[in-house]
Design a protein that fits this description.
single chain; mainly alpha; about 0% strand
């Protein structure tokens, strides 16, 4: 039990560090995760990590949070999964609750420190593309798949387009590599079985069907909040930037808040570390204080827990089959391509508007890749540099 407690404490500490330093959105988070969990901690190898990323791209909800949940589940069981989520999301939830009380209507979009965070994301994602490309797209066919996936993601920038790219790359990988010998994949060690997984998937479906009925039967703000956020967390594909317009249609017309207050929170959510889905904490706090923030956050992320617990055991049992491995070789190359497209849009296009911004991104990249400075230190230095450059008018 002592060793188990030690593992849980380590999961909490590592995920909390990521929750405090992982700026830049879901694509950047995958870069931070790979650096911490694969390269530094060696909790899993690059191929297993890419397989989990590929799976989470297919699931609705916040992909980066689901990757963190999956790694926590592998490392420390159900408790480890919760601790991984708690550490990664709680810092931004607390910050956004404070924003909800103190920064209504504040415009943070062009602050120098925020621009510094966005520039850091450019360096982090570029590092991830370079590292994952070497291991997941090492030959000409997979480089071709990655490039075609990047082109497709740029021209069809939607969640459904991304799913089509991944599916097409799976077919391409199967056709190209089905006759080749594939190395034996490292086994994903899980403490939950398929019965637990089936029960989790059943609960996911039941809540999705029953919550709207319960909301109609029993009126109340908390029930309505839980229904809205659970439904959005269950049905949204494409990450945090997709969830925001869906939420706006739910909360602004209902009179829970004005559009100005909603958009102010959107700016704040982009300025904090961790997943953009923690925007639920801001919205819940505006509607009903701290209890509203906790209910909205729990409802938003509950589908991710249920889906990861429900799908990962089945995924673990089939991913080692030769045909599945061949398909995954194509999918993993496509993940590199999608990451490459995201490096341009939205990461590069939202951060680099001048030669000085590009210069700062280059310095950040060099500090990460060649000087091997820890990401949290590069984040801090880039925030300081961005603030100073904004003050003197060169950013």
């Amino acid at each position: 039990m002592k060793s188990r407690l030690k593992i849980w404490l380590e999961i909490l500490l590592v995920s909390s560090k990521l929750g405090l330093t992982s700026f830049g959105g879901p694509v950047a988070h995958l870069g931070y995760f790979r650096e911490e969990y694969v390269k530094k901690k060696k909790w899993l190898d690059d191929q297993s990590y890419a397989d989990i990323v590929a799976l989470c791209q297919f699931l609705p909800g916040p992909a980066s949070s689901q990757v963190g949940l999956s790694i926590g589940l592998l490392r420390g069981g159900l408790v480890g999964s919760f601790l991984s989520w708690f550490g990664f999301t709680m810092p931004s939830i607390l910050i956004l609750i404070v924003f909800a009380y103190l920064f209504k209507g504040t415009d943070v979009h062009e602050a120098g420190w925020l621009m510094g965070l966005k520039i850091t994301a450019v360096a982090v994602v570029a590092q991830a593309v370079m590292g994952m490309g070497k291991s997941l797209a090492p030959d000409r066919p997979r480089i071709t798949i990655a490039v075609l996936a990047a082109v497709g993601a740029l021209f069809v920038p939607s969640a459904w387009g991304q799913l089509a790219i991944i599916a097409g790359s799976a077919v391409a990988g199967y056709l190209l590599y089905k006759r080749e010998e594939v190395p034996e994949v490292p086994k994903l060690i899980l403490t939950i079985g398929k019965k637990t997984a089936s029960a989790s998937l059943l609960l996911f479906g039941l809540l999705l069907v029953l919550l709207p009925i319960i909301r109609q039967t029993f009126s109340g703000t908390y029930i309505a909040l839980f229904d809205v956020f659970y439904r959005v967390g269950s049905l949204v594909f494409g990450g945090g930037h997709v969830v925001l317009p869906m939420l706006e249609k739910e909360v602004v017309p209902a009179g829970w808040m004005t559009q100005d207050v909603f958009l102010a929170g959107y700016g704040a959510a982009q300025a904090v570390p961790g997943p953009l889905f923690t925007f639920a904490g801001y919205v819940g706090a505006i509607i009903s204080g701290v209890p509203g923030a906790l209910i909205a956050t729990a409802a938003m992320f509950l589908p991710s827990f249920l889906l990861v617990i429900g799908v990962l055991p089945f995924w673990s049992s089939i991913r080692g089959k030769k045909g599945v491995q061949a398909a995954l070789m194509g999918v993993n190359a496509a993940v590199v391509g999608i990451l490459l497209a995201a490096l341009y849009d939205p990461v590069f296009t939202s951060a680099i508007h001048s030669a000085s911004a590009f210069a700062l991104a280059l310095v950040s990249f060099a500090l990460l890749v060649y000087w091997k400075l820890p990401p949290w230190l590069v984040v801090g230095l880039t925030i300081i540099a961005g603030t100073l450059m904004e003050q003197i008018g060169v950013l």
